[in-house]
Amino acid sequence: MRSTLLLSIVGFFTVAANAASINKRTISSEVQVCIDQLNLVGPKMDNLQAYLNTFDTGETEYNLATDLKIHTFKREVNTALETSGIACCDVSSPVFTDEEAPALLSIYQGITPKVQEYTQSYIAKYPIIYEIPFYLIVYMLDFKNATQFSDTLGGCLVSRSPSAQSDAFTAEMNLIRAAYDEAHTVYSNIPEA
């Protein structure tokens, strides 16, 4: 009886120690910072999209105040992309582990449709914004910066991805870049004074 109890206790601590060891090596602290920063991007895009949607419902009229608010939301998105890029590029390991890569890919794949949605919302609103060339320039620069920040982020994710996920990371990066490029191209069409 005593030996059975003792073996059970030893077995429990062995399992607990192994579980702790597995959890420790699953995701490094550097990659966890990258994941945490990447998780902040989606909600910032959701905030921007929600505000853009208020124009479609007629809740919001386009004017200087609303333009500044859109620009503020967009700047928050760009800051989140930039911060994520810095965090993910600061990972010292040359290759994500088999546990880290799928976790990052899952978040990254969640960002892609959000980028596509809000860039399409911007494109749909171009005929309204076209009337005010200054706003076009501001938005064009916003998209240029977003492309730069998302390329940095995507490049670091792709360069550290294991071969099994490399194509998937590259595909997401290309979709995001295409969305930003399309919006940038549309907003580069500035009427002559």
Task: Give a description of the structure.
The longest helix is centred in the N-terminal third of the chain and has 28 residues, at 29-56. With 193 residues, this protein is mainly α. Mean pLDDT is 87; it is low at 15-24. Helix 2 (29-56) packs antiparallel against helix 3, helix 3 (64-89) packs parallel to helix 6 (133-160) and helix 4 runs parallel beside helix 7. The protein is elongated. The protein has helices at 2-26, 29-56, 64-89, 100-124, 126-129, 133-160, 163-187. 83% of the residues lie in helices and 0% in strands. The protein contains seven helices and no strands.
Layout of helices and strands, plus pairs?
Elements: H1 2-26, H2 29-56, H3 64-89, H4 100-124, H5 126-129, H6 133-160, H7 163-187
Helix pairs in contact: 2-3, 2-4, 3-6, 4-7, 6-7
First-residue to last-residue Cα separation:
93 Å
Number of strands: 0
Radius of gyration: 22 Å
Mean pLDDT: 87
Short description:
This protein is an all-alpha fold and 193 residues long.
Name its key features.
193 residues; 7 helices; mainly alpha
